[in-house]
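Summary for the funding panel

The consortium committed to producing paired sequence-structure records for every protein in the target list. Below we show the first two records in order, beginning with the earlier of the two.
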Amino acid sequence: MGHWWYRNIVEPGKLPLLLCLLAFVLTFLATRTVTRLIRAGRGPFRNVSSGGVHIHHVVPGILLAVAGGFAAVAAPGQGAGKAAAGVVFGVGAGLVMDEFALVLHLQDVYWTEEGRRSVEMVVLTAAAVGVVLLGAVPLGVDEVGQAERADRASLVSTVAVNFLFVVAALAKGKYRLGVIGVLVPVVALVGAVRLARVDSPWARRLYRSERKRERAAARQARHDARWGGVRRRLEDWLGGTPRG
């Protein structure tokens, strides 16, 4: 175990990233626990206000993320300074992403259906960083051999093709597949070749026939019926049940 730890985490300089990811996940879980206690009226926790203005935790999150980001850039090498900066950035990012939906909608949607976007983005972010931690390089560069790396045309074409897969997956409304596909190209390929969701930009522009739209709607309904309930239960468990 010690040999694996040194070879895969310490030697490649991934310890700051690991600490950052742990801080990000633990901050999100702690924040959701506190907000759920506040919502239920339990414990000593209360909302923070100043001059009649409710201070959302995205505010200290932004400050911590900015401070941690600048400190990480300024810290030399892979020492304790960079690791500490990674932790600070992870805490700040966790606070910010927990209120991602608020930033997106520019209104307090924390306990609404729209607020589920925050939980989705936290899970996606943690998954993407975890894949990077395991050694994946964006857009399939890690799958290119040494000889192909020396050939610039081969490298550029590999990155370009995988980038197109990611764009197609996102345009088809397969946002989770598109994000993960940045690091695992075969995932983006799956999203690129499947039928688009009916409310996606791809479907609105290219699915002009009624038959194609009906097929897409039927596929989407089957997918949501199979996985929608599982996803909602997971999101409720992680982030709490929306009101109404």
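The next record, for a separate protein in the list, is shown here:
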Amino acid sequence: MTFPTMPTQATAATVSNMTSARPALPSAFAGGGGSTGFSPAFQAVQADVATFIAQGGGMSFDSPDTPLSADGAALRARLAAQAIGGTDLANGAVNGAVDGNGIDGDAQQQFLATIRPHAEVAAARLGVSPDIVAAHAALESGWGQRPLRNGTADSNNLFGIKAGSGWQGDVAANVTTEYEHGTPVKKVEKFRSYPDQASAFRDYADLLASNPRYQKALNAGDDAHAFASGLARGGYATDPAYVQKLSKLASRIARTEY
């Protein structure tokens, strides 16, 4: 997903740069077979840790008072996300939401019922069906089951909106997948964090209604494909299949009685 911020280049890492001075890692990364084992989560970020150290950024991950560079903060955020099981919360939500994989019907119904009042208000401002707004929230949050996290708390960011330089609110760092020239690249990005779902829907409607990039998505009525295409043309997402995914989910919600 991509929003107000521009994508950055993926990290090029080399494990051979690992030294005896490597930083201490959280206990969540210890392998189950003994103190010297490495879990899959550790292995996934091991190369990034190596490069970070090689570039002179060594520090202790279990010391919250240690000053961090921007790269160090992003790496710590990635480790934290891995530790709580969020290997790719943002992208995993999108890929798992279209057909409701792993999410039972009752959970889907409960999610739609909960967000319906907010979706109706946002939809009225955007000139689209509430079903389309609900589908967009379901797609980005995995039916509310895979929310972006602010630490261990829910960020209530149901639409995967990134925190650009102009954002004055709370921020949640999460691992996500961006598509650069059609190639998926995992990276840590900063996302907006809200106190509640109502705030998330208001900000979502404000963003789409006020940003000229998304004007072609407005007033699409019941045409989910036109709405999704307008978002894609404005750069809301980098996934080349995003229009198809959102259109399919909106159509499914519209024809199903929850």
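Regarding this second record: Helices lie at 40-54, 70-83, 89-97, 105-126, 130-141, 197-210, 224-233, 242-254. The two ends are 28 Å apart (CA to CA).
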